[in-house]
Amino acid sequence: MGGRTEDVVTVDGSTRTDAGSTGVDEARGVTWHGVRTVAALELRQRVRSSRWKTALVVWVVAVGAITLLSSGALAALSRTESDPPSRGPLLFAIVTVLVLGLGLLVTPTLTSTAVNGDRAAGTLATLQVTLLSPAEIALGKLLAAWSAALAFLVASVPFLGVALALGDVPVAALPRVVVVVALLLVAVCGIGLGWSTVAARPAGSTVLTFLTVAGLAVFTPVFFGIAFPAVTQTETVTVHGIPPEQWQDLDGLELENGAPANATCETYTEEREVTHTERTWWLLALNPFVVVADAAGTSPGAGMDAAANRFDPLGTVSEGVRFLRAGPPDVQEECWIEDGSAVELPTAGAVWPYGLAANLLLGVVGFVVAVRRLRIPQRTLPRGTRVA
């Protein structure tokens, strides 16, 4: 390219590539032609690979088989029970969790070796010495990996439609789930792309990507549970209910609705242990499964009337995490004898925008790291890594 480059072996054995004044190391803009060129090269390699086609077929078979078996099991349950729960929300939750779980397992393999794999094969330097900018190379690889991930997601949409056809699920839940899962997958692609430029070996970047995804999907609930004692403390709380004095002598008292006869609800204070989950709810919001469950909007409170017998796992998760975000109420409502109605639990707003934004931010960080690591000349390369 008109400049002079040479490799210098430093004292610690690493390789440093020095260059004269060339136009290769200068920052260039991003053009759609450059991004499309890199993405097309990546996709052609995947289409020619039989492993990718096999993975797609296995994906469809696995999701279809589990959907069919789950639907059959729920149908058998409805025949044996006099008042069976609605099958739509249950099957929709099963397929949604399955699609997201498999997506989080497959997607890291699409970008975790995108850069160091090409470097090991000696093809990365060919791209770097062209007029393609580092941002175009990184964005093209990201676009190709996301397109491949979307192919798996699109193949799962018919099975989500089957669950939707069983009823009791809002029609808007399907596009919500598809869009949110697609955004989570591009975030994982960005994370894997970043690790593929940091780790010298493909195996190392793959492990690091899976650990990051596991940290979001598995370890966040664990950390939330571990933090429980740290946010639990004894406080004076205000309670609206039957005071302890009415429970002191139960011998000979007639109970009505589980309470002493003629009991009255009063507002009183007492010392109790209180857990301030409003300080740690964000740990659950980072979880991709919580993000999808809260964004799906399948709960009765999201514009749908509650059926007589309806169990909605996604709605239960959504309501639970919103309750945890609200934290302990100012007044503990424990009076159930006045009107016989269930006590309404306090809830806060939606948590999925925060969790989705945090996941996308991690993907953006990975992408930015990849762009910076793809710039040439790169002064320091990991030990044993070749330039071309």
Could you explain how this protein is built, in words?
- This protein has 388 residues and is mainly α.
- The chain has a domain of 214 residues.
- The chain has 13 helices and seven strands.
- It has a three-stranded mixed sheet, with no helix packed on it. The chain has a two-stranded antiparallel sheet with strand order 1-2.
- A hairpin with a 5-residue loop joins strand 1 and strand 2.
- Helix 2 runs parallel beside helix 7 and helix 3 packs antiparallel against helix 7.
- The N terminus is likely disordered.
Number of helices: 13
Morphology call: globular
Radius of gyration: 28 Å
Percent strand equals 5-15%
Give the ordered list of helices and strands.
EEHHHHHHHHHEEEEHHHEH
Bin the helical content. 55-70%
Question: What does the main sheet amount to?
Answer: 3 strands, mixed
Average pLDDT: 82
pLDDT < 50 stretches: 1-27, 302-308
N→C terminal distance: 15 Å
- How many DSSP-defined strands? 7
What would you call the structural class? mainly alpha
The side-by-side strand order for the widest beta sheet comes to: 6-3-7
